[in-house]
Protein backbone atom coordinates (compact mmCIF):
# COMPACT_ATOMS: atom_id res chain seq x y z
CA UNK A 1 0.00 0.00 0.00
CA UNK A 2 1.34 3.41 -0.94
CA UNK A 3 0.11 5.73 1.78
CA UNK A 4 -0.49 9.25 0.47
CA UNK A 5 1.28 12.02 2.33
CA UNK A 6 -1.87 14.16 2.13
CA UNK A 7 -5.36 13.91 0.64
CA UNK A 8 -6.21 15.51 -2.69
CA UNK A 9 -6.91 19.17 -2.07
CA UNK A 10 -10.11 18.98 -4.11
CA UNK A 11 -11.55 15.98 -2.26
CA UNK A 12 -14.66 16.85 -0.28
CA UNK A 13 -16.40 14.65 2.25
CA UNK A 14 -19.28 14.07 -0.17
CA UNK A 15 -16.84 13.11 -2.92
CA UNK A 16 -15.07 10.68 -0.62
CA UNK A 17 -18.34 9.04 0.39
CA UNK A 18 -18.53 7.43 -3.02
CA UNK A 19 -15.25 5.55 -2.72
CA UNK A 20 -14.36 2.38 -0.82
CA UNK A 21 -14.47 2.44 3.00
CA UNK A 22 -10.71 2.00 3.26
CA UNK A 23 -9.96 4.78 0.79
CA UNK A 24 -12.42 7.04 2.58
CA UNK A 25 -10.79 6.34 5.91
CA UNK A 26 -7.26 6.92 4.68
CA UNK A 27 -8.21 10.14 2.92
CA UNK A 28 -10.09 11.53 5.90
CA UNK A 29 -7.53 10.61 8.52
CA UNK A 30 -4.79 12.16 6.43
CA UNK A 31 -6.84 15.29 5.82
CA UNK A 32 -7.73 15.84 9.46
CA UNK A 33 -4.37 14.99 10.98
CA UNK A 34 -2.42 16.94 8.35
CA UNK A 35 -4.57 20.00 8.90
CA UNK A 36 -4.12 19.71 12.67
CA UNK A 37 -0.42 18.91 12.50
CA UNK A 38 1.79 20.78 14.88
CA UNK A 39 3.77 23.34 12.95
CA UNK A 40 7.41 22.32 12.91
CA UNK A 41 9.63 25.16 11.77
CA UNK A 42 12.63 22.88 12.01
CA UNK A 43 11.60 21.07 8.83
CA UNK A 44 13.44 23.78 6.93
CA UNK A 45 16.68 22.75 8.60
CA UNK A 46 17.17 19.73 6.34
CA UNK A 47 18.81 21.63 3.47
CA UNK A 48 22.17 20.66 2.06
CA UNK A 49 25.55 21.27 3.62
CA UNK A 50 28.87 21.90 1.86
CA UNK A 51 30.94 18.92 0.85
CA UNK A 52 33.56 17.85 3.41
CA UNK A 53 31.93 19.87 6.18
CA UNK A 54 33.45 19.05 9.57
CA UNK A 55 31.64 18.01 12.74
CA UNK A 56 32.81 16.62 16.03
CA UNK A 57 30.46 13.65 15.76
CA UNK A 58 28.56 12.09 12.89
CA UNK A 59 25.59 9.89 13.77
CA UNK A 60 24.30 7.55 11.07
CA UNK A 61 20.61 6.69 11.33
CA UNK A 62 17.80 8.60 13.04
CA UNK A 63 15.97 5.79 14.78
CA UNK A 64 15.75 5.38 18.54
CA UNK A 65 19.50 4.87 18.86
CA UNK A 66 20.75 7.66 16.64
CA UNK A 67 18.28 10.33 17.70
CA UNK A 68 18.94 9.83 21.40
CA UNK A 69 22.70 9.85 20.88
CA UNK A 70 22.43 13.07 18.85
CA UNK A 71 20.26 14.64 21.53
CA UNK A 72 22.59 13.77 24.38
CA UNK A 73 25.82 14.71 22.58
CA UNK A 74 24.48 18.14 21.65
CA UNK A 75 23.90 18.81 25.35
CA UNK A 76 27.60 19.66 25.21
CA UNK A 77 27.31 23.09 23.66
CA UNK A 78 30.75 23.17 22.08
CA UNK A 79 30.29 19.82 20.33
CA UNK A 80 28.84 19.82 16.82
CA UNK A 81 26.81 16.83 15.62
CA UNK A 82 25.57 15.79 12.18
CA UNK A 83 22.62 13.37 12.18
CA UNK A 84 22.02 11.61 8.85
CA UNK A 85 18.78 9.78 7.98
CA UNK A 86 18.13 7.88 4.75
CA UNK A 87 14.37 8.46 4.98
CA UNK A 88 12.29 11.59 5.10
CA UNK A 89 10.29 13.53 7.65
CA UNK A 90 7.81 11.69 9.85
CA UNK A 91 4.35 11.96 8.25
CA UNK A 92 1.63 13.42 10.44
CA UNK A 93 -0.61 10.36 10.08
CA UNK A 94 1.97 8.29 11.96
CA UNK A 95 0.68 9.73 15.23
CA UNK A 96 -2.67 7.88 15.00
CA UNK A 97 -2.30 4.68 17.08
CA UNK A 98 -4.91 2.67 15.20
CA UNK A 99 -3.15 3.55 11.95
CA UNK A 100 0.01 1.58 12.80
CA UNK A 101 -1.19 -1.42 10.80
CA UNK A 102 -0.74 0.64 7.65
CA UNK A 103 2.63 2.00 8.76
CA UNK A 104 3.88 -1.58 8.83
CA UNK A 105 3.12 -2.42 5.21
CA UNK A 106 6.33 -3.19 3.29
CA UNK A 107 5.08 -1.07 0.38
CA UNK A 108 4.74 1.93 2.68
CA UNK A 109 6.71 5.05 1.83
CA UNK A 110 8.32 4.91 5.27
CA UNK A 111 9.59 1.32 5.04
CA UNK A 112 12.86 -0.05 3.66
CA UNK A 113 11.05 -2.91 1.92
CA UNK A 114 13.39 -5.62 3.20
CA UNK A 115 12.63 -9.31 2.68
CA UNK A 116 14.58 -12.26 3.96
CA UNK A 117 15.91 -15.01 1.76
CA UNK A 118 13.27 -17.60 0.96
CA UNK A 119 13.65 -20.84 2.88
CA UNK A 120 11.20 -23.77 2.89
CA UNK A 121 10.78 -24.07 6.67
CA UNK A 122 9.48 -20.59 7.59
CA UNK A 123 7.28 -17.78 6.33
CA UNK A 124 5.55 -20.06 3.85
CA UNK A 125 8.76 -20.57 1.92
CA UNK A 126 8.44 -17.13 0.34
CA UNK A 127 10.77 -15.10 2.52
CA UNK A 128 9.71 -12.92 5.42
CA UNK A 129 8.84 -9.27 5.39
CA UNK A 130 11.47 -7.58 7.57
CA UNK A 131 9.74 -4.24 8.05
CA UNK A 132 12.09 -1.44 9.14
CA UNK A 133 11.28 2.24 9.37
CA UNK A 134 12.95 4.44 6.74
CA UNK A 135 11.94 7.78 8.22
CA UNK A 136 12.89 10.14 11.02
CA UNK A 137 12.26 8.08 14.13
CA UNK A 138 13.06 4.83 12.33
CA UNK A 139 10.93 1.94 13.49
CA UNK A 140 9.65 3.96 16.46
CA UNK A 141 7.56 5.75 13.84
CA UNK A 142 6.09 2.53 12.47
CA UNK A 143 6.01 0.04 15.35
CA UNK A 144 3.14 -0.96 17.62
CA UNK A 145 4.38 1.36 20.38
CA UNK A 146 4.93 -1.26 23.11
CA UNK A 147 7.15 -0.03 25.93
CA UNK A 148 8.55 -3.31 27.28
CA UNK A 149 12.03 -3.55 28.76
CA UNK A 150 12.66 -7.28 28.89
CA UNK A 151 13.63 -9.40 31.89
CA UNK A 152 16.10 -8.44 34.63
CA UNK A 153 18.01 -11.66 33.98
CA UNK A 154 18.68 -10.71 30.35
CA UNK A 155 20.94 -7.86 31.38
CA UNK A 156 22.58 -9.76 34.21
CA UNK A 157 23.42 -12.45 31.68
CA UNK A 158 24.92 -9.84 29.34
CA UNK A 159 27.21 -8.84 32.20
CA UNK A 160 28.09 -12.46 32.98
CA UNK A 161 29.13 -12.86 29.34
CA UNK A 162 31.91 -10.34 29.96
CA UNK A 163 30.12 -7.06 29.26
CA UNK A 164 31.02 -5.05 32.34
CA UNK A 165 28.51 -2.39 33.32
CA UNK A 166 25.53 -3.95 31.55
CA UNK A 167 23.90 -5.76 34.48
CA UNK A 168 20.34 -4.81 35.37
CA UNK A 169 21.26 -2.60 38.31
CA UNK A 170 23.77 -0.83 36.05
CA UNK A 171 21.34 -0.05 33.25
CA UNK A 172 18.07 0.58 35.13
CA UNK A 173 18.94 4.27 35.55
CA UNK A 174 19.07 4.68 31.77
CA UNK A 175 15.54 3.35 31.35
CA UNK A 176 14.41 5.77 34.03
CA UNK A 177 16.36 8.67 32.51
CA UNK A 178 14.44 8.61 29.22
CA UNK A 179 11.02 8.08 30.70
CA UNK A 180 8.13 10.41 31.40
CA UNK A 181 5.64 7.89 32.74
CA UNK A 182 2.04 9.07 32.98
CA UNK A 183 1.08 6.73 35.83
CA UNK A 184 1.65 8.54 39.16
CA UNK A 185 1.70 5.25 41.06
CA UNK A 186 4.45 3.79 38.89
CA UNK A 187 6.73 6.81 39.13
CA UNK A 188 6.79 6.37 42.90
CA UNK A 189 8.76 3.15 42.40
CA UNK A 190 12.45 2.87 41.55
CA UNK A 191 11.59 1.32 38.20
CA UNK A 192 10.06 4.36 36.51
CA UNK A 193 10.79 7.99 35.89
CA UNK A 194 9.07 11.25 35.11
CA UNK A 195 10.32 14.32 33.29
CA UNK A 196 12.27 12.44 30.61
CA UNK A 197 11.85 13.01 26.89
CA UNK A 198 9.88 9.82 26.19
CA UNK A 199 6.20 9.87 27.14
CA UNK A 200 5.02 6.46 28.34
CA UNK A 201 1.39 5.73 29.18
CA UNK A 202 -1.53 3.43 28.39
CA UNK A 203 -3.88 4.35 25.58
CA UNK A 204 -6.99 6.32 26.59
CA UNK A 205 -9.42 3.78 25.10
CA UNK A 206 -10.03 0.09 25.83
CA UNK A 207 -12.85 -1.74 24.09
CA UNK A 208 -14.80 -4.63 25.61
CA UNK A 209 -12.43 -7.27 24.24
CA UNK A 210 -9.34 -5.54 25.61
CA UNK A 211 -10.88 -5.51 29.08
CA UNK A 212 -12.00 -9.12 28.66
CA UNK A 213 -8.54 -10.29 27.63
CA UNK A 214 -6.99 -8.86 30.76
CA UNK A 215 -9.65 -10.44 32.96
CA UNK A 216 -9.66 -13.77 31.15
CA UNK A 217 -5.90 -14.22 31.21
CA UNK A 218 -5.89 -13.48 34.92
CA UNK A 219 -8.56 -16.17 35.40
CA UNK A 220 -6.29 -18.79 33.84
CA UNK A 221 -3.40 -17.90 36.14
CA UNK A 222 -1.54 -14.87 34.80
CA UNK A 223 -1.11 -12.04 37.30
CA UNK A 224 -1.89 -8.50 36.15
CA UNK A 225 1.18 -6.42 36.93
CA UNK A 226 3.67 -3.85 35.74
CA UNK A 227 5.82 -6.01 33.47
CA UNK A 228 8.49 -3.30 33.56
CA UNK A 229 8.71 -3.44 37.35
CA UNK A 230 9.97 -6.00 39.83
CA UNK A 231 8.51 -9.07 38.10
CA UNK A 232 8.08 -9.82 34.41
CA UNK A 233 5.76 -12.84 34.41
CA UNK A 234 2.09 -12.01 33.91
CA UNK A 235 -0.22 -9.87 31.82
CA UNK A 236 -0.38 -6.12 31.34
CA UNK A 237 -2.35 -3.43 29.60
CA UNK A 238 0.82 -2.35 27.93
CA UNK A 239 2.58 0.89 28.56
CA UNK A 240 3.06 2.59 25.21
CA UNK A 241 5.33 5.22 23.69
CA UNK A 242 2.35 7.54 23.42
CA UNK A 243 0.75 10.57 25.01
CA UNK A 244 -2.88 11.70 25.04
CA UNK A 245 -3.89 9.33 22.26
CA UNK A 246 -0.95 10.06 19.96
CA UNK A 247 2.18 8.09 19.07
CA UNK A 248 5.38 9.56 20.46
CA UNK A 249 8.15 8.35 18.20
CA UNK A 250 11.80 9.01 19.01
CA UNK A 251 11.59 11.81 16.48
CA UNK A 252 8.73 13.56 18.30
CA UNK A 253 10.04 12.72 21.78
CA UNK A 254 13.78 13.37 21.50
CA UNK A 255 14.45 15.32 18.30
CA UNK A 256 11.58 17.74 17.79
CA UNK A 257 12.08 19.58 21.14
CA UNK A 258 15.72 20.41 20.30
CA UNK A 259 15.96 20.43 16.53
CA UNK A 260 15.44 24.14 15.97
CA UNK A 261 16.93 25.19 19.30
CA UNK A 262 20.43 23.73 19.29
CA UNK A 263 22.69 25.38 16.74
CA UNK A 264 25.26 22.63 17.22
CA UNK A 265 22.91 20.01 15.71
CA UNK A 266 22.49 19.50 11.97
CA UNK A 267 19.91 17.05 10.63
CA UNK A 268 19.92 15.79 7.05
CA UNK A 269 17.03 13.67 5.79
CA UNK A 270 16.95 11.65 2.55
CA UNK A 271 20.70 11.21 2.98
CA UNK A 272 21.85 7.60 2.64
CA UNK A 273 25.26 6.94 4.16
CA UNK A 274 27.12 4.67 1.77
CA UNK A 275 30.46 4.25 3.53
CA UNK A 276 32.28 5.06 6.74
CA UNK A 277 35.60 6.64 5.77
CA UNK A 278 38.37 4.77 7.56
CA UNK A 279 42.10 5.30 7.17
CA UNK A 280 43.35 1.84 6.23
CA UNK A 281 46.79 2.43 7.73
CA UNK A 282 45.80 3.84 11.12
CA UNK A 283 42.40 2.13 11.19
CA UNK A 284 40.77 5.37 12.27
CA UNK A 285 37.27 6.46 11.25
CA UNK A 286 37.31 10.07 10.08
CA UNK A 287 34.01 10.65 8.32
CA UNK A 288 31.32 9.29 6.04
CA UNK A 289 30.29 9.29 2.42
CA UNK A 290 26.59 9.84 1.80
CA UNK A 291 24.20 10.21 -1.12
CA UNK A 292 21.69 13.03 -1.28
CA UNK A 293 19.88 14.69 -4.16
CA UNK A 294 21.65 12.47 -6.68
CA UNK A 295 25.14 13.35 -5.48
CA UNK A 296 27.76 11.63 -3.38
CA UNK A 297 29.02 13.88 -0.59
CA UNK A 298 31.38 13.54 2.35
CA UNK A 299 31.28 14.77 5.92
CA UNK A 300 34.27 14.77 8.25
CA UNK A 301 34.23 13.65 11.89
CA UNK A 302 36.82 15.22 14.17
CA UNK A 303 36.03 12.88 17.04
CA UNK A 304 33.81 9.87 16.23
CA UNK A 305 31.42 8.24 13.82
CA UNK A 306 28.47 6.52 15.51
CA UNK A 307 26.59 3.93 13.45
CA UNK A 308 22.95 3.58 14.53
CA UNK A 309 21.32 2.04 11.48
CA UNK A 310 19.77 -0.94 13.24
CA UNK A 311 20.23 -4.69 12.98
CA UNK A 312 20.18 -4.75 9.16
CA UNK A 313 21.65 -1.42 8.08
CA UNK A 314 24.49 -1.21 10.60
CA UNK A 315 26.19 -4.46 9.54
CA UNK A 316 25.55 -3.60 5.90
CA UNK A 317 27.30 -0.24 6.27
CA UNK A 318 30.24 -1.67 8.20
CA UNK A 319 30.77 -4.36 5.57
CA UNK A 320 30.62 -1.80 2.75
CA UNK A 321 33.27 0.15 4.68
CA UNK A 322 35.70 -2.76 4.94
CA UNK A 323 34.81 -3.88 8.45
CA UNK A 324 33.43 -7.39 8.36
CA UNK A 325 34.14 -11.05 7.62
CA UNK A 326 37.04 -11.53 5.25
CA UNK A 327 35.20 -14.33 3.49
CA UNK A 328 32.36 -11.94 2.65
CA UNK A 329 34.38 -8.86 1.66
CA UNK A 330 37.30 -10.22 -0.36
CA UNK A 331 35.20 -11.97 -3.05
CA UNK A 332 33.44 -8.63 -3.62
CA UNK A 333 36.72 -6.76 -4.03
CA UNK A 334 36.32 -4.76 -0.82
CA UNK A 335 39.63 -4.19 1.00
CA UNK A 336 39.44 -5.68 4.48
CA UNK A 337 40.29 -3.06 7.10
CA UNK A 338 39.24 -5.22 10.03
CA UNK A 339 38.13 -8.85 9.92
CA UNK A 340 35.20 -9.08 12.36
CA UNK A 341 32.03 -11.17 12.54
CA UNK A 342 29.86 -8.29 11.42
CA UNK A 343 26.42 -9.51 10.35
CA UNK A 344 26.60 -12.81 12.21
CA UNK A 345 24.67 -13.63 15.40
CA UNK A 346 21.64 -12.06 13.69
CA UNK A 347 18.41 -13.23 15.32
CA UNK A 348 14.86 -12.31 16.03
CA UNK A 349 11.77 -13.23 18.00
CA UNK A 350 10.02 -15.59 15.61
CA UNK A 351 6.26 -15.92 16.06
CA UNK A 352 3.30 -17.57 14.38
CA UNK A 353 -0.40 -17.10 13.86
CA UNK A 354 -2.78 -20.07 13.79
CA UNK A 355 -5.09 -19.67 16.80
CA UNK A 356 -8.05 -17.43 16.01
CA UNK A 357 -11.02 -16.52 18.20
CA UNK A 358 -14.26 -15.69 16.42
CA UNK A 359 -16.17 -12.96 18.25
CA UNK A 360 -19.81 -14.03 18.28
CA UNK A 361 -21.04 -11.23 20.57
CA UNK A 362 -18.32 -8.57 20.76
CA UNK A 363 -17.28 -7.82 17.20
CA UNK A 364 -15.73 -4.38 16.89
CA UNK A 365 -16.36 -4.05 13.19
CA UNK A 366 -17.89 -0.67 12.35
CA UNK A 367 -19.66 0.69 9.31
CA UNK A 368 -18.84 3.94 7.57
CA UNK A 369 -21.17 6.07 9.69
CA UNK A 370 -19.56 4.82 12.90
CA UNK A 371 -16.09 5.26 11.44
CA UNK A 372 -16.85 8.89 10.62
CA UNK A 373 -18.03 9.42 14.19
CA UNK A 374 -14.83 7.86 15.54
CA UNK A 375 -12.77 9.98 13.19
CA UNK A 376 -14.48 13.13 14.39
CA UNK A 377 -13.97 12.14 18.02
CA UNK A 378 -10.29 11.51 17.40
CA UNK A 379 -9.86 14.77 15.51
CA UNK A 380 -11.48 16.80 18.27
CA UNK A 381 -10.27 15.03 21.40
CA UNK A 382 -7.70 12.35 20.49
CA UNK A 383 -9.98 9.79 22.17
CA UNK A 384 -12.14 6.89 21.03
CA UNK A 385 -11.25 3.73 19.09
CA UNK A 386 -8.66 5.43 16.88
CA UNK A 387 -6.66 6.52 19.93
CA UNK A 388 -5.74 2.90 20.69
CA UNK A 389 -4.93 -0.40 19.01
CA UNK A 390 -7.76 -2.63 20.22
CA UNK A 391 -6.65 -5.92 21.77
CA UNK A 392 -3.14 -5.31 20.43
CA UNK A 393 -2.50 -3.25 23.59
CA UNK A 394 -2.50 -6.40 25.76
CA UNK A 395 0.77 -8.26 26.33
CA UNK A 396 1.45 -11.41 28.37
CA UNK A 397 4.49 -13.44 29.41
CA UNK A 398 4.73 -17.08 30.53
CA UNK A 399 7.36 -19.68 31.31
CA UNK A 400 7.13 -23.05 29.57
CA UNK A 401 8.38 -26.42 30.73
CA UNK A 402 11.51 -25.88 28.63
CA UNK A 403 12.87 -23.15 30.95
CA UNK A 404 14.44 -24.33 34.21
CA UNK A 405 14.16 -20.94 35.93
CA UNK A 406 10.49 -20.63 36.78
CA UNK A 407 10.24 -16.84 36.64
CA UNK A 408 12.35 -16.38 33.48
CA UNK A 409 9.76 -16.04 30.72
CA UNK A 410 10.55 -17.83 27.49
CA UNK A 411 7.33 -17.01 25.65
CA UNK A 412 5.40 -13.81 25.02
CA UNK A 413 1.85 -13.37 23.76
CA UNK A 414 0.44 -10.50 21.81
CA UNK A 415 -3.03 -10.35 20.31
CA UNK A 416 -3.93 -9.11 16.86
CA UNK A 417 -7.17 -7.58 15.71
CA UNK A 418 -8.16 -9.27 12.46
CA UNK A 419 -11.02 -8.86 10.05
CA UNK A 420 -12.06 -11.44 7.50
CA UNK A 421 -12.43 -8.69 4.90
CA UNK A 422 -8.78 -7.59 4.84
CA UNK A 423 -6.53 -4.95 6.40
CA UNK A 424 -8.23 -2.16 8.34
CA UNK A 425 -7.35 0.16 11.24
CA UNK A 426 -6.65 -1.77 14.44
CA UNK A 427 -9.89 -0.48 15.96
CA UNK A 428 -12.10 -2.54 13.65
CA UNK A 429 -12.09 -6.32 13.86
CA UNK A 430 -14.24 -9.41 14.26
CA UNK A 431 -11.54 -11.93 15.20
CA UNK A 432 -8.69 -12.07 17.69
CA UNK A 433 -5.50 -13.85 16.66
CA UNK A 434 -3.22 -15.14 19.41
CA UNK A 435 0.45 -14.59 18.58
CA UNK A 436 2.96 -16.68 20.58
CA UNK A 437 6.52 -15.33 20.40
CA UNK A 438 9.78 -17.20 21.09
CA UNK A 439 11.66 -14.94 23.50
CA UNK A 440 15.07 -16.61 23.57
CA UNK A 441 15.49 -18.34 20.23
CA UNK A 442 18.53 -20.52 19.71
CA UNK A 443 18.58 -20.12 15.92
CA UNK A 444 21.09 -17.65 14.50
CA UNK A 445 21.27 -16.15 11.03
CA UNK A 446 23.32 -13.54 9.21
CA UNK A 447 23.35 -10.33 7.19
CA UNK A 448 25.71 -10.20 4.19
CA UNK A 449 26.14 -7.62 1.47
CA UNK A 450 25.76 -8.97 -2.05
CA UNK A 451 27.97 -6.42 -3.81
CA UNK A 452 29.76 -3.09 -3.43
CA UNK A 453 26.53 -1.33 -4.36
CA UNK A 454 25.24 0.52 -1.26
CA UNK A 455 21.78 0.77 -2.81
CA UNK A 456 21.36 -3.00 -3.11
CA UNK A 457 19.61 -4.64 -0.20
CA UNK A 458 21.80 -7.08 1.70
CA UNK A 459 21.16 -10.79 1.91
CA UNK A 460 19.08 -11.38 5.02
CA UNK A 461 18.87 -14.92 6.36
CA UNK A 462 17.36 -15.17 9.86
CA UNK A 463 17.79 -18.95 9.70
CA UNK A 464 14.60 -19.48 11.68
CA UNK A 465 14.01 -22.97 13.09
CA UNK A 466 17.52 -24.20 12.51
CA UNK A 467 17.13 -25.23 16.16
CA UNK A 468 14.24 -27.54 17.10
CA UNK A 469 13.93 -25.77 20.45
CA UNK A 470 12.36 -22.74 18.77
CA UNK A 471 9.67 -24.88 17.16
CA UNK A 472 8.89 -26.54 20.49
CA UNK A 473 8.29 -23.16 22.13
CA UNK A 474 5.85 -22.17 19.39
CA UNK A 475 4.07 -25.53 19.59
CA UNK A 476 3.57 -24.92 23.29
CA UNK A 477 2.44 -21.36 22.64
CA UNK A 478 -0.20 -22.34 20.11
CA UNK A 479 -1.60 -24.87 22.57
CA UNK A 480 -1.66 -22.20 25.27
CA UNK A 481 -3.69 -20.08 22.87
CA UNK A 482 -6.38 -22.76 22.81
CA UNK A 483 -6.18 -23.27 26.57
CA UNK A 484 -6.87 -19.58 27.15
CA UNK A 485 -10.43 -20.22 25.97
CA UNK A 486 -11.11 -22.08 29.22
CA UNK A 487 -11.46 -18.66 30.81
CA UNK A 488 -14.95 -18.05 32.20
CA UNK A 489 -14.97 -14.53 30.78
CA UNK A 490 -14.11 -15.71 27.27
CA UNK A 491 -16.87 -18.31 27.42
CA UNK A 492 -19.45 -15.82 28.67
CA UNK A 493 -18.60 -13.40 25.87
CA UNK A 494 -18.96 -16.11 23.26
CA UNK A 495 -15.37 -16.39 22.09
CA UNK A 496 -15.19 -19.41 19.79
CA UNK A 497 -12.12 -21.15 18.45
CA UNK A 498 -12.05 -20.95 14.67
CA UNK A 499 -11.41 -24.58 13.73
CA UNK A 500 -11.29 -24.03 9.99
CA UNK A 501 -7.91 -25.42 8.91
CA UNK A 502 -5.32 -22.90 7.83
CA UNK A 503 -4.77 -22.96 4.08
CA UNK A 504 -2.25 -25.63 3.12
CA UNK A 505 -2.58 -27.62 6.35
CA UNK A 506 -6.02 -29.22 5.96
CA UNK A 507 -4.60 -32.72 5.47
CA UNK A 508 -3.69 -32.75 9.16
CA UNK A 509 -6.12 -33.08 12.05
CA UNK A 510 -6.82 -29.63 13.48
CA UNK A 511 -4.73 -28.85 16.58
CA UNK A 512 -2.63 -32.01 16.24
CA UNK A 513 1.15 -31.62 16.40
CA UNK A 514 1.55 -32.31 12.65
CA UNK A 515 -1.06 -29.62 12.00
CA UNK A 516 0.72 -27.05 14.17
CA UNK A 517 4.08 -27.89 12.61
CA UNK A 518 2.52 -27.26 9.22
CA UNK A 519 1.07 -23.96 10.44
CA UNK A 520 4.42 -22.87 11.86
CA UNK A 521 6.16 -23.67 8.60
CA UNK A 522 3.66 -21.70 6.54
CA UNK A 523 2.52 -18.88 8.84
CA UNK A 524 5.51 -18.08 11.03
CA UNK A 525 6.94 -14.58 10.67
CA UNK A 526 9.17 -12.01 12.26
CA UNK A 527 7.99 -10.02 15.23
CA UNK A 528 10.35 -7.21 14.14
CA UNK A 529 12.60 -7.64 17.17
CA UNK A 530 15.83 -7.87 15.19
CA UNK A 531 19.22 -7.70 16.87
CA UNK A 532 22.62 -9.20 17.57
CA UNK A 533 24.30 -8.58 14.21
CA UNK A 534 27.11 -6.38 15.66
CA UNK A 535 27.49 -8.33 18.86
CA UNK A 536 28.86 -6.76 22.03
CA UNK A 537 31.32 -8.96 23.84
CA UNK A 538 34.77 -9.19 25.44
CA UNK A 539 37.90 -9.45 23.31
CA UNK A 540 37.98 -13.18 24.03
CA UNK A 541 34.66 -13.64 22.21
CA UNK A 542 35.54 -14.41 18.60
CA UNK A 543 32.05 -13.33 17.48
CA UNK A 544 32.18 -9.91 19.15
CA UNK A 545 32.17 -6.77 16.99
CA UNK A 546 32.09 -4.10 19.71
CA UNK A 547 33.40 -3.94 23.27
CA UNK A 548 31.37 -3.04 26.34
CA UNK A 549 31.80 0.66 25.47
CA UNK A 550 30.31 -0.08 22.03
CA UNK A 551 33.60 0.68 20.26
CA UNK A 552 34.30 -1.38 17.15
CA UNK A 553 37.26 -3.64 17.85
CA UNK A 554 40.56 -2.40 16.41
CA UNK A 555 39.00 0.58 14.62
CA UNK A 556 39.50 3.90 16.38
CA UNK A 557 36.70 6.47 16.70
CA UNK A 558 33.96 4.15 15.46
CA UNK A 559 31.03 2.91 17.56
CA UNK A 560 27.78 1.08 16.99
CA UNK A 561 24.85 2.12 19.17
CA UNK A 562 21.59 0.32 18.40
CA UNK A 563 19.88 -3.07 18.83
CA UNK A 564 22.52 -4.80 16.71
CA UNK A 565 24.95 -4.79 19.67
CA UNK A 566 22.73 -6.99 21.85
CA UNK A 567 24.64 -10.20 22.68
CA UNK A 568 21.22 -11.83 22.57
CA UNK A 569 17.90 -10.11 22.06
CA UNK A 570 16.21 -9.40 25.37
CA UNK A 571 13.02 -11.19 26.44
CA UNK A 572 10.54 -8.66 25.13
CA UNK A 573 10.05 -5.83 22.66
CA UNK A 574 13.24 -4.06 21.60
CA UNK A 575 12.29 -0.36 21.44
CA UNK A 576 12.74 0.52 25.13
CA UNK A 577 16.02 -1.46 25.41
CA UNK A 578 17.38 0.33 22.34
CA UNK A 579 16.61 3.67 23.99
CA UNK A 580 18.46 2.47 27.07
CA UNK A 581 21.45 1.39 24.96
CA UNK A 582 21.55 4.84 23.36
CA UNK A 583 21.34 6.65 26.68
CA UNK A 584 24.17 4.56 28.10
CA UNK A 585 26.17 4.81 24.89
CA UNK A 586 25.96 8.60 24.89
CA UNK A 587 27.20 8.69 28.48
CA UNK A 588 30.15 6.45 27.57
CA UNK A 589 31.10 8.79 24.72
CA UNK A 590 31.00 11.76 27.07
CA UNK A 591 33.07 9.88 29.63
CA UNK A 592 35.69 8.90 27.06
CA UNK A 593 36.01 12.53 25.95
CA UNK A 594 36.31 13.75 29.55
CA UNK A 595 32.88 15.32 29.87
CA UNK A 596 31.55 15.28 33.43
CA UNK A 597 28.34 13.27 33.64
CA UNK A 598 25.31 14.76 35.35
Describe the structure concisely.
This protein has about 600 residues and is an alpha/beta fold. Helix content is about 25%, strand content about 20%. The N terminus is likely disordered.
**Largest sheet data:** 7 strands, mixed
Report the helical percentage.
Answer: 25-40%
- Give the CA-based shape: globular
Q: Strand share of the residues? A: 15-25%
CATH classification class of the largest domain: Alpha Beta
Computed structural class: alpha/beta
Q: Whole-number radius of gyration?
A: 23 Å
Mean pLDDT: 92
CATH architecture of the largest domain: 3-Layer(bba) Sandwich
Q: Which consecutive residue ranges, at least 5 long each, have pLDDT under 50? A: 1-22, 38-46
Number of strands: 24
H/I helix tally: 15
CATH topology of the largest domain: FAD/NAD(P)-binding domain
Please tell me the total number of domains: 3
| End-to-end gap | 46 Å
Keywords: FAD, Flavoprotein
Cofactor: FAD
GO molecular function, one term: oxidoreductase activity, acting on CH-OH group of donors
InterPro entries: FAD/NAD-bd_sf (IPR036188), GMC_OxRdtase (IPR012132), GMC_OxRdtase_N (IPR000172), GMC_OxRtase_C (IPR007867)
Describe the structure.
26% of the residues lie in helices and 19% in strands. It is α/β, with parallel strands linked by helices. It folds into 3 domains: 1-37, no CATH class; 58-89 and 132-194 and 250-345 and 531-598, FAD/NAD(P)-binding domain (3-Layer(bba) Sandwich); 203-237 and 349-527, Glucose Oxidase, domain 3. The strands form 7 sheets. Strands 1, 2, 8, 9, 10, 11 and 24 form a 7-stranded mixed beta sheet that branches. It is globular, with a radius of gyration of 23 Å. The two termini are 46 Å apart. Its cofactor is FAD. GO terms for molecular function: flavin adenine dinucleotide binding; oxidoreductase activity, acting on CH-OH group of donors. This is Glucose-methanol-choline oxidoreductase N-terminal domain-containing protein. Belongs to the GMC oxidoreductase family.
